[in-house]
Amino acid sequence: MYLSIDVGGTKVLATTFSDEGKVLKSKKIKTPVMYPDFIEEVKKTAKELTGDEQPKSTAIALPGTIDRDNGIVLFFGNLPWENVHICEDLSDTLHNPIYLENDAKMAGLAEAKAVEDLYSRVLYITVSTGIGLGLIVDGKIDHTVNDAGGRAIMLEHQGKIMAWEEFASGKAIVAQTGKMASEITEEADWYLVSRNIAIGLIDLVVTLSPEAIVIGGGVGAHLENFHEKLHDELEIYRSRMIAKMPQILKAQHPEEAVVYGGYLLNRQNDKE
Protein backbone atom coordinates (compact mmCIF):
# COMPACT_ATOMS: atom_id res chain seq x y z
CA MET A 1 0.00 0.00 0.00
CA TYR A 2 1.10 3.54 -0.80
CA LEU A 3 -0.19 6.85 0.54
CA SER A 4 -0.46 9.98 -1.60
CA ILE A 5 -1.47 13.41 -0.26
CA ASP A 6 -2.34 16.49 -2.31
CA VAL A 7 -2.13 19.68 -0.23
CA GLY A 8 -3.95 22.65 -1.73
CA GLY A 9 -4.72 26.12 -0.48
CA THR A 10 -8.31 25.18 0.40
CA LYS A 11 -8.39 21.37 0.55
CA VAL A 12 -6.24 18.33 1.25
CA LEU A 13 -6.93 15.09 -0.64
CA ALA A 14 -5.40 11.92 0.78
CA THR A 15 -5.59 8.59 -1.08
CA THR A 16 -4.21 5.12 -0.51
CA PHE A 17 -3.27 2.93 -3.47
CA SER A 18 -2.60 -0.75 -3.84
CA ASP A 19 0.78 -1.85 -5.18
CA GLU A 20 -0.87 -2.11 -8.62
CA GLY A 21 -2.22 1.46 -8.51
CA LYS A 22 -5.83 0.78 -7.55
CA VAL A 23 -7.46 3.37 -5.28
CA LEU A 24 -8.21 1.79 -1.90
CA LYS A 25 -9.50 4.68 0.21
CA SER A 26 -9.71 8.43 -0.19
CA LYS A 27 -10.63 11.37 2.01
CA LYS A 28 -10.85 15.11 1.44
CA ILE A 29 -10.50 17.65 4.24
CA LYS A 30 -10.39 21.43 4.46
CA THR A 31 -6.85 22.81 4.66
CA PRO A 32 -6.29 24.31 8.12
CA VAL A 33 -4.89 27.84 8.17
CA MET A 34 -2.42 27.14 10.98
CA TYR A 35 0.44 24.76 10.24
CA PRO A 36 0.27 22.79 13.56
CA ASP A 37 -3.44 22.16 12.90
CA PHE A 38 -2.57 20.98 9.39
CA ILE A 39 -0.07 18.45 10.74
CA GLU A 40 -2.58 17.08 13.25
CA GLU A 41 -5.28 16.76 10.57
CA VAL A 42 -2.94 14.95 8.20
CA LYS A 43 -1.93 12.52 10.96
CA LYS A 44 -5.56 11.85 11.80
CA THR A 45 -6.50 11.35 8.16
CA ALA A 46 -3.53 9.07 7.50
CA LYS A 47 -4.53 6.85 10.43
CA GLU A 48 -8.12 6.67 9.17
CA LEU A 49 -7.00 5.60 5.71
CA THR A 50 -4.24 3.16 6.66
CA GLY A 51 -5.51 1.66 9.91
CA ASP A 52 -2.91 -0.60 11.51
CA GLU A 53 -0.96 -0.96 8.27
CA GLN A 54 1.96 1.33 7.50
CA PRO A 55 2.28 2.41 3.85
CA LYS A 56 5.45 1.39 2.04
CA SER A 57 6.01 5.10 1.43
CA THR A 58 4.16 8.42 1.32
CA ALA A 59 4.24 11.12 -1.35
CA ILE A 60 3.07 14.61 -0.45
CA ALA A 61 2.38 17.25 -3.10
CA LEU A 62 2.62 20.89 -2.06
CA PRO A 63 2.13 24.22 -3.88
CA GLY A 64 5.56 25.69 -3.29
CA THR A 65 9.34 25.50 -3.32
CA ILE A 66 10.78 22.37 -1.77
CA ASP A 67 14.06 21.23 -0.26
CA ARG A 68 13.62 17.57 -1.16
CA ASP A 69 16.84 16.33 0.39
CA ASN A 70 15.91 17.63 3.85
CA GLY A 71 12.13 17.25 3.71
CA ILE A 72 11.42 20.97 4.07
CA VAL A 73 8.95 23.21 2.28
CA LEU A 74 10.70 26.55 1.95
CA PHE A 75 7.82 28.60 0.61
CA PHE A 76 4.15 27.92 -0.13
CA GLY A 77 2.50 29.57 -3.10
CA ASN A 78 -0.87 30.07 -1.42
CA LEU A 79 -0.42 29.16 2.24
CA PRO A 80 1.16 31.32 4.98
CA TRP A 81 3.86 28.81 5.95
CA GLU A 82 7.62 28.95 5.36
CA ASN A 83 10.52 26.61 6.15
CA VAL A 84 8.32 23.87 7.59
CA HIS A 85 9.83 20.44 8.30
CA ILE A 86 6.91 18.34 7.14
CA CYS A 87 8.71 14.98 6.97
CA GLU A 88 10.07 15.34 10.50
CA ASP A 89 6.73 16.59 11.84
CA LEU A 90 4.87 13.57 10.45
CA SER A 91 7.51 10.98 11.35
CA ASP A 92 5.87 9.94 14.63
CA THR A 93 2.80 8.79 12.67
CA LEU A 94 4.15 7.84 9.25
CA HIS A 95 6.98 5.40 9.92
CA ASN A 96 7.99 5.13 6.28
CA PRO A 97 9.88 7.14 3.65
CA ILE A 98 8.13 10.45 2.91
CA TYR A 99 8.73 12.15 -0.44
CA LEU A 100 7.86 15.81 -0.89
CA GLU A 101 7.15 17.16 -4.36
CA ASN A 102 5.78 20.28 -6.01
CA ASP A 103 2.12 19.70 -6.87
CA ALA A 104 2.39 20.71 -10.56
CA LYS A 105 5.33 18.36 -11.04
CA MET A 106 3.45 15.51 -9.38
CA ALA A 107 0.39 16.12 -11.56
CA GLY A 108 2.67 16.25 -14.59
CA LEU A 109 4.00 12.79 -13.73
CA ALA A 110 0.46 11.39 -13.98
CA GLU A 111 -0.41 13.26 -17.18
CA ALA A 112 2.83 12.20 -18.85
CA LYS A 113 2.08 8.59 -17.91
CA ALA A 114 -1.20 8.84 -19.83
CA VAL A 115 0.60 9.72 -23.08
CA GLU A 116 3.90 7.86 -22.56
CA ASP A 117 3.38 5.73 -25.68
CA LEU A 118 3.37 8.88 -27.82
CA TYR A 119 5.70 11.35 -26.09
CA SER A 120 8.80 10.96 -23.96
CA ARG A 121 9.26 14.66 -23.16
CA VAL A 122 6.11 16.23 -21.75
CA LEU A 123 5.64 19.71 -20.29
CA TYR A 124 2.70 19.99 -17.90
CA ILE A 125 1.26 23.42 -17.13
CA THR A 126 -1.50 24.08 -14.66
CA VAL A 127 -3.25 27.41 -15.15
CA SER A 128 -5.41 28.05 -12.10
CA THR A 129 -5.10 30.71 -9.41
CA GLY A 130 -1.41 30.64 -10.32
CA ILE A 131 0.69 28.88 -12.95
CA GLY A 132 2.62 25.72 -12.12
CA LEU A 133 5.07 23.79 -14.29
CA GLY A 134 6.43 20.29 -14.52
CA LEU A 135 8.72 18.78 -17.16
CA ILE A 136 8.63 14.99 -17.39
CA VAL A 137 11.39 13.25 -19.35
CA ASP A 138 11.18 9.50 -19.93
CA GLY A 139 8.63 9.18 -17.15
CA LYS A 140 10.63 11.07 -14.51
CA ILE A 141 10.44 14.60 -13.14
CA ASP A 142 13.13 16.97 -14.39
CA HIS A 143 14.06 19.04 -11.33
CA THR A 144 16.03 21.60 -13.30
CA VAL A 145 12.66 23.32 -13.84
CA ASN A 146 12.05 25.77 -11.00
CA ASP A 147 9.32 24.96 -8.45
CA ALA A 148 8.12 28.57 -8.59
CA GLY A 149 6.51 28.07 -12.00
CA GLY A 150 4.91 31.17 -13.47
CA ARG A 151 6.10 33.32 -10.59
CA ALA A 152 9.72 32.87 -11.71
CA ILE A 153 9.24 33.65 -15.41
CA MET A 154 9.68 37.38 -15.94
CA LEU A 155 8.33 38.91 -19.16
CA GLU A 156 7.48 42.30 -20.61
CA HIS A 157 3.76 42.99 -20.53
CA GLN A 158 2.15 46.32 -21.31
CA GLY A 159 5.48 48.10 -20.96
CA LYS A 160 6.36 46.52 -17.60
CA ILE A 161 8.50 43.57 -16.54
CA MET A 162 6.13 41.21 -14.73
CA ALA A 163 5.93 37.61 -13.62
CA TRP A 164 4.05 35.56 -16.22
CA GLU A 165 1.63 34.44 -13.51
CA GLU A 166 0.64 38.07 -12.84
CA PHE A 167 -1.05 38.49 -16.23
CA ALA A 168 -1.79 34.95 -17.49
CA SER A 169 -3.14 33.03 -14.47
CA GLY A 170 -6.77 32.35 -13.63
CA LYS A 171 -6.64 35.13 -11.06
CA ALA A 172 -5.38 37.53 -13.73
CA ILE A 173 -8.14 36.45 -16.14
CA VAL A 174 -10.77 37.39 -13.57
CA ALA A 175 -9.11 40.78 -13.04
CA GLN A 176 -8.94 41.44 -16.80
CA THR A 177 -12.34 40.15 -17.93
CA GLY A 178 -14.42 40.13 -14.76
CA LYS A 179 -15.11 36.43 -15.38
CA MET A 180 -13.72 33.06 -14.45
CA ALA A 181 -12.73 30.82 -17.35
CA SER A 182 -15.92 28.82 -16.91
CA GLU A 183 -17.97 32.00 -17.48
CA ILE A 184 -16.21 33.32 -20.60
CA THR A 185 -18.32 33.36 -23.78
CA GLU A 186 -16.79 36.22 -25.79
CA GLU A 187 -14.23 35.34 -28.46
CA ALA A 188 -12.26 38.49 -27.65
CA ASP A 189 -11.77 37.29 -24.06
CA TRP A 190 -10.49 33.92 -25.22
CA TYR A 191 -8.05 35.66 -27.56
CA LEU A 192 -6.78 37.66 -24.58
CA VAL A 193 -6.35 34.47 -22.55
CA SER A 194 -4.55 32.77 -25.44
CA ARG A 195 -2.22 35.67 -26.12
CA ASN A 196 -1.14 36.01 -22.49
CA ILE A 197 -0.54 32.27 -22.10
CA ALA A 198 1.34 32.08 -25.42
CA ILE A 199 3.80 34.83 -24.46
CA GLY A 200 5.26 32.69 -21.67
CA LEU A 201 4.65 29.34 -23.32
CA ILE A 202 6.79 30.09 -26.37
CA ASP A 203 9.79 30.72 -24.11
CA LEU A 204 9.27 27.33 -22.49
CA VAL A 205 9.01 25.66 -25.89
CA VAL A 206 12.37 27.15 -26.87
CA THR A 207 14.20 26.39 -23.62
CA LEU A 208 12.70 23.00 -22.69
CA SER A 209 11.91 21.49 -26.14
CA PRO A 210 8.84 19.46 -25.12
CA GLU A 211 7.24 17.06 -27.56
CA ALA A 212 3.84 17.73 -26.01
CA ILE A 213 2.35 20.35 -23.70
CA VAL A 214 -0.47 19.27 -21.38
CA ILE A 215 -2.54 22.11 -19.97
CA GLY A 216 -4.49 21.51 -16.78
CA GLY A 217 -6.01 23.51 -13.94
CA GLY A 218 -9.23 25.50 -13.90
CA VAL A 219 -8.37 27.36 -17.11
CA GLY A 220 -6.96 24.29 -18.85
CA ALA A 221 -10.28 22.52 -18.25
CA HIS A 222 -11.70 24.79 -20.97
CA LEU A 223 -8.91 24.26 -23.49
CA GLU A 224 -11.38 23.37 -26.23
CA ASN A 225 -12.57 26.99 -26.16
CA PHE A 226 -9.14 28.44 -26.89
CA HIS A 227 -7.00 25.59 -28.26
CA GLU A 228 -7.00 26.89 -31.84
CA LYS A 229 -6.45 30.49 -30.72
CA LEU A 230 -3.53 29.44 -28.52
CA HIS A 231 -1.97 27.59 -31.44
CA ASP A 232 -2.35 30.66 -33.66
CA GLU A 233 -0.77 32.90 -31.03
CA LEU A 234 2.19 30.55 -30.61
CA GLU A 235 2.75 30.62 -34.36
CA ILE A 236 3.04 34.42 -34.22
CA TYR A 237 5.98 34.14 -31.79
CA ARG A 238 7.50 31.09 -33.44
CA SER A 239 11.00 31.49 -34.84
CA ARG A 240 12.67 29.45 -37.56
CA MET A 241 14.72 27.79 -34.83
CA ILE A 242 11.62 25.80 -33.82
CA ALA A 243 11.37 23.09 -36.46
CA LYS A 244 8.20 21.59 -35.02
CA MET A 245 5.75 22.93 -32.47
CA PRO A 246 4.75 20.52 -29.70
CA GLN A 247 1.27 19.09 -29.53
CA ILE A 248 -1.03 20.91 -27.10
CA LEU A 249 -3.20 18.55 -25.09
CA LYS A 250 -5.89 18.88 -22.45
CA ALA A 251 -5.19 17.26 -19.08
CA GLN A 252 -6.93 13.91 -18.85
CA HIS A 253 -7.15 13.64 -15.06
CA PRO A 254 -7.79 17.12 -13.64
CA GLU A 255 -9.01 15.91 -10.25
CA GLU A 256 -6.91 12.80 -9.62
CA ALA A 257 -3.66 13.70 -11.38
CA VAL A 258 -1.77 14.88 -8.30
CA VAL A 259 -2.56 11.91 -6.04
CA TYR A 260 -2.00 9.42 -8.87
CA GLY A 261 1.29 11.16 -9.60
CA GLY A 262 2.11 10.55 -5.94
CA TYR A 263 1.49 6.84 -6.41
CA LEU A 264 3.86 6.84 -9.41
CA LEU A 265 6.50 8.76 -7.43
CA ASN A 266 6.23 6.26 -4.58
CA ARG A 267 6.66 3.37 -6.99
CA GLN A 268 9.66 4.96 -8.69
CA ASN A 269 11.43 5.56 -5.38
CA ASP A 270 10.52 2.07 -4.21
CA LYS A 271 12.36 0.56 -7.19
CA GLU A 272 15.51 2.68 -6.78
Based on CA atoms alone, the radius of gyration comes out at: 19 Å
Sheet bearing the most strands, described?
5 strands, mixed
Spatial strand order of the main sheet: 3-2-1-4-8
CATH architecture of the largest domain: 2-Layer Sandwich
Percentage of residues in helical conformation: 25-40%
Low-confidence stretches: none
Number of domains: 2
**First and last CA, distance:** 17 Å
Query: Which topology of the largest domain does CATH recognise?
Result: Nucleotidyltransferase, domain 5
Categorize the overall geometry: globular
Order of helices and strands: EEEHEEEEHEHEEEEEHHHEHHEH
Identify the CATH homologous superfamily of the largest domain.
Answer: ATPase, nucleotide binding domain
| Share of residues in strands | 25-35%
State the total count of DSSP E strands. Answer: 15
Q: How would you characterize this protein structure?
A:
This protein has 272 residues and is of the alpha/beta class. The protein has 2 domains: 2-103, ATPase, nucleotide binding domain (Nucleotidyltransferase, domain 5, 2-Layer Sandwich); 106-250, Nucleotidyltransferase, domain 5 (2-Layer Sandwich). The chain is 36% helix and 28% strand. The chain contains 9 helices and 15 strands. The chain has helices spanning 35-50, 86-90, 103-114, 164-168, 170-177, 187-208, 217-220, 227-237, 257-271, and strands spanning 2-7, 11-17, 23-30, 58-62, 64-67, 72-76, 82-84, 98-102, 121-127, 131-137, 140-141, 154-157, 160-163, 212-216, 247-250. The chain has a 5-stranded mixed beta sheet with strand order 3-2-1-4-8, with helices on both faces. The chain has a 5-stranded mixed beta sheet with strand order 11-10-9-14-15. A 3-stranded antiparallel beta sheet has the order 5-6-7, with no helix packed on it. Strand 12 (154-157) and strand 13 form a beta hairpin. The radius of gyration is 19 Å and the shape is globular. The mean pLDDT is 92.
